[in-house]
Amino acid sequence: MAAENDKSRLDDAARAGWLYFIAGHTQDEIAKMLQVSRASAQRLVSLCLAERLITFRLEHPIAACMELAARLKERFELVHCEVVPADPAAPQAVAGIAERCANLLDSTLRSETPVIVALGTGRAVRAAVERVTPIDRPNHQIVSLVGNISADGSASFYDTVGRLADRTGARHYPMPLPFLMSSEDERNKMVRIEPIAKVKAVAAKADLRLVGIGQMDQKAQVHIDGFVTRDELFEMMRLGAIGEITGWAYDAKGRLLKAGTNKRLTSIPPEVPARTTTIGAAVGAAKVPAIAAALSGGLINGLITDEATARAILER
Amino acid sequence: MAAENDKSRLDDAARAGWLYFIAGHTQDEIAKMLQVSRASAQRLVSLCLAERLITFRLEHPIAACMELAARLKERFELVHCEVVPADPAAPQAVAGIAERCANLLDSTLRSETPVIVALGTGRAVRAAVERVTPIDRPNHQIVSLVGNISADGSASFYDTVGRLADRTGARHYPMPLPFLMSSEDERNKMVRIEPIAKVKAVAAKADLRLVGIGQMDQKAQVHIDGFVTRDELFEMMRLGAIGEITGWAYDAKGRLLKAGTNKRLTSIPPEVPARTTTIGAAVGAAKVPAIAAALSGGLINGLITDEATARAILER
DNA sequence: TGGTTTTCTGAGCTATTGCTCATCGTATGG
DNA sequence: CCATACGATGAGCAATAGCTCAGAAAACCA
């Protein structure tokens, strides 16, 4: 039986991982203990890592990062800020902040009293939900801030809300709408229909919003993912768009634009200034202006980023 | 200033640990990033570990088992200890530990050089031999530690030794004696006769002893199986018996009693303290005092049990 | 200041690990 | 029932990590 096999394989992987990382044995010793070849023991250890059966947690506050976080927190009056060590080899690496986001989600979801978590877009957010520790919390609610139907009508794009719900057993509210409607009128009509109004109502009560921050340039994720066309993107850039959060474009001062795609956008609009905990997650030099603007405009009141990005934001 | 140095050194250690474990770089890469030699990078990673700046968390039920096993092993100086996940649906289920016992037998018997395996009583031991993988090892020897003739003179009770011999083609030595003789004198006479002395001699050279552990209460297996009468059981309890291994009753400190049925018992007595690998297999809340006593008294130097039982033993 | 001790560093060796490739066994499907 | 393909396995090799040792730098003491 496949499931049985998988289970015992994961069991062995966990054993191997424990013996390797916690007990400190060599893979050769582990191989003998578990009666497998050394190669298999190595595979089990890798599997343990790949399946995230084991997680690493850095207990030590790295002074430099702590200081950057403190400065960001003070300067932009944030309720939450984390700065992870930069990885010079891969400045765009989302792994570090995803880990911290997952941690944040973990600790939020661990609560026994029901909580509502709202999720936006972004690679970091996606990577974060993958790393959330499974936990049974059927009374929590997970709600999407953005429509989950792409331009071509498929609902295929990465289902963050669903994934997180899988891991927690929480009720979830994806938003069954296209990212953009064809006109402002139509948008206004759609957001009033019952199921959408329901999602909106839940989102309004969210205890935590975790959102990615996108820059508005030729490499804008909203364009790469096919949610906005090249022309729409250029139009928004002409209108002064420098960044977007859940699709809502804003200018260099963090003011939401009242034109272009924003008028046809179905995403739930950000509170301005953010009152509920709204945490932006983003790294990379290209995103610095977008992040800084979002912070200035109060679109977010929390930030998870890396050392290099944090430094760049503060140096502007 | 030393503190400053230490601090920045720990900082670097944390950074190195982060880059190594979380970002997944090699120490060589880290060395270049931090502008130190590879050797120093290695030292920083070690330091990070040594100072517990980074911790590993294994998100798997097995983790708890591994830890319990390690604690039992240390606390009672065991040569072997395995803890299987408890089955909440069937706390008495012997299946899990039987599987592990079978595994242990498998790996012992796989050896090409002749080995001697001695078997005691117990449901787990019986279930284990049923699960041993058949293998042809005619030069091994399987020997029984207990008489295989019950009170009524039949040799019907479960023939562990024979079953295991069937599966391995090994020579086997059942012990053709009643469990209890009618008097101490008679016992002393019987154990000196040739066939029995032979069994005893083989057992003395056993490489592995696998024994069940029985509690001495109203539900004692030795009584249920009809080897000791209610009166005999009560007498032993009065004398302080809390558990038995191959019929040998011992008190709460794991000391063999020198009275009652122990004087008429034909079973081969345990070494105290155990020198050859002597593994106890038992689960269940009722057996906790018996197991703990056997461990304390050194009647066994190995244990296979389940999570709940392991926890209970350690919490005493 | 000069000697002494201690700590740190890097070179180089050995053990350990990760990976590739060929093989084997087994499940799947015609 | 056989053919095919898929995944698992072990051997062997290249990369990586851990360790020891000798020398250098720093700290300490008289």
From TrEMBL, chains A, B:
Question: What is the residue range of the signal peptide feature?
Answer: none
Q: Where is the Sugar-binding domain?
A: 61-315
Pfam families tied to this protein: Sugar-bind
- Keyword Transcription carried by entry: yes
Protein keywords: DNA-binding, Transcription, Transcription regulation
Q: Which organism is it from?
A: Bradyrhizobium forestalis
GO MF annotation terms: carbohydrate binding; DNA binding
Membership in a protein family:
Belongs to the SorC transcriptional regulatory family.
Is Transferase given among the entry's keywords? no
Q: What domain of life?
A: Bacteria
Q: State the name under which the record lists this protein.
A: DNA-binding transcriptional regulator
Q: Which SUPFAM superfamilies match?
A: NagB/RpiA/CoA transferase-like
